Every structure is written in structure tokens, then in C-alpha cells.
Amino acid sequence: MNTVLRRVAAVRTSDGAVLHAVVDGSDDAPVTLVLAHGWTLAQAAWDDVAELLTPKVAEGELRLIRYDQRGHGRSTWGRYADDVAELSIDQLGQDLGELLDDLAPAGPVVLGGHSMGGMTIMCLAAARPELFGDRVRGVALVSTSAGDLAPAGETLVERLQLRLAPGMVSAAIGGARAIERLRQLLPPSHPRHQKLVRELLYGADATDDMVVAGAEIMHATTIRAFAAFYPALGEHDKRQELKALADVPVEILVGDSDKLTPKRHSRQMAEVLPEANLEIVPRTGHMLPQERPQLVTDAIGRLLSAATSDRAAA
């Protein structure tokens, strides 16, 4: 196998945030794949998929970009460093657009987004639809949602959640140091920590190694990122703004036991995008890129093939 060319990039956004990205492959590859990760994760959440794509990168068939979303991993907060009140998933969509302008200014692009990363792509499509069709030629939406994530407020518990959410964010950010100390007492290696993560995020077939790896990525995320993006996820709603995605091939994947973005969310997207390929994966939870990396890679592979075909280039 050929050696994979790798470089680390720092993309400075218009408001001064610095997005940490890793670029694998040659600049003259026929197509670029950009992968966006989910809430409280980092680009490492895509490592298993990236490893399966390495042969394509090594052969010069693909350029792969993974990056840490704002406030996650090694990326900074920009104008939200002191106040996260106005933070939104739309901001993440703008970030992705600026990353494309900087690192992939020309040539075909395929986008893959897991969870909040999928929402990021939807926000970019709503804000800059002209990118989709010519530049962006395929989208993988993995374990994600176009909206309707906030509690409906129909029950007492849901009404309390809605009322307490802003206060919870302030309290969590204000008490971040204390919470961080508490987290150190229950590290990812602790069986109770792993049990909680498994029950919330993984399906029946997930291995212990998968669970520990996911727990370690999340454990490295700050309490501030957890708290700041919680209300933004609830406010995200692009159910009426997916039109640009109808211009490109779309793969929608979801685990049948996903508790965070249940399969009804993927079905809603598929109803709005009837040409999309919907795959509901048995015995799988929210962490599809880890739990079923080959399946996710295969879906991305179909998009890459379409993006570089004569038909897509026409």
C-alpha cells in the first residue's frame, strides 16, 4: 500500500474560532470526503470508518477531511468563548461552509455527518443551497435528525425539562470545575461508567472495546460543550429546509435501537427526501460509525462512486 499523505490544518472562521482538521490524501484526488462528528464527540469518532477508507486514500482515489466541531476536541469557541447564549447548530453549518471554502475550494465533495454532524450538514444546505449539486455531490446522514428533538411539553416532566433547560446550562457551565472533578472519580475504565454509556448509546452487538473507546472520546469533551449545545440541539429544526439535499444522492442510516435520534427521525427525513436510501440497522444503537463501520463505509462508498461518475459530473 502507498504511504498516506497527512497534514493537520487549522481553519480560522470569520468570528475567530479555530477548527482543528486532519487532511489525508492528495490535493488532486478526484473527490474529497468531509466527515462531521456528533455532540460531545470529536473527529476520532470517525476513526473506524477512516481506517476502512485508507486504501482509497492511499491509491489517490480519495481525499479525506475530519475535523473537530467548534467547542469540541482541539477546536476553539470563537465569539462564544465567554457567552454561549446565542450558540446554534446554524453556526456549525456556517463553520462547515467556511471549512469547505478553505480546505476544499474546488472539485467534488461528499459530506458525512453523524448525529449533530448530520444536523450541521442540514444547516449548511439551508444556508448555502447553491453548494449542493455541483460542489457537494452526496450526503450521508448517520443517526441524526432534522428536528423535533426538544421535549414537547405535553407531560409534567417534559414541561419541567423545558423550564429547567436554560438554568441547567448556566449551572453546568458555572459548576464545570466541580463537575469535572466528579467525572474524574468515575472514569471510562469504571464499570458503572461503561454500563451507562452502553445503555444510552449502543446496541446489543456492541463490543466492550467499542463502548470504552466511545466513552473515552466523550470523557475528553468538556462539560461546557455538553451544556452549551444541549439547548441548540433542541432548537434545531430543518424539516422544512431540506430542499437542497434533494439535488444530490443521500444515504440515511439509523440503528433500530437508537435512543438519542430514534428511527422515526430518519423516516421523517426519508419522507421529505423520497430518493434517499434509508437503511435501518438491526441490533444497533446511536454510534453507527463505531458499531457498523463497514456498513457506513459502504454507504459512503456509493456516494463517492456517484460523485465521480460521468453522470454526476454532467
Low-confidence spans: pLDDT under 50, at least 5 residues? Answer: 164-176
What's the oligomerization state? Answer: single chain
Residues in helices, as a percent range: 40-55%
Radius of gyration: 19 Å
Q: Which CATH C-level class is it? A: Alpha Beta
The CATH superfamily appears as: Alpha/Beta hydrolase fold, catalytic domain
* Helix count from the secondary structure assignment: 12
CATH topology description: Rossmann fold
Instruction: Please count the beta strands (DSSP E, at least 2 residues each).
Output: 8
Total domains: 1
Q: Which CATH-level-2 architecture?
A: 3-Layer(aba) Sandwich
Average pLDDT over all residues = 88
Strand content: 15-25%
Q: What is the CA–CA distance across the termini?
A: 32 Å
Widest sheet: strand order? 1-2-4-3-5-6-7-8
> What global shape is seen?
globular
Report what the structure shows:
With 314 residues, this protein is of the alpha/beta class. The protein has a single domain (6-313), classed as Alpha/Beta hydrolase fold, catalytic domain (Rossmann fold), CATH 3.40.50.1820. It contains 12 helices and 8 strands. The two termini are 32 Å apart.
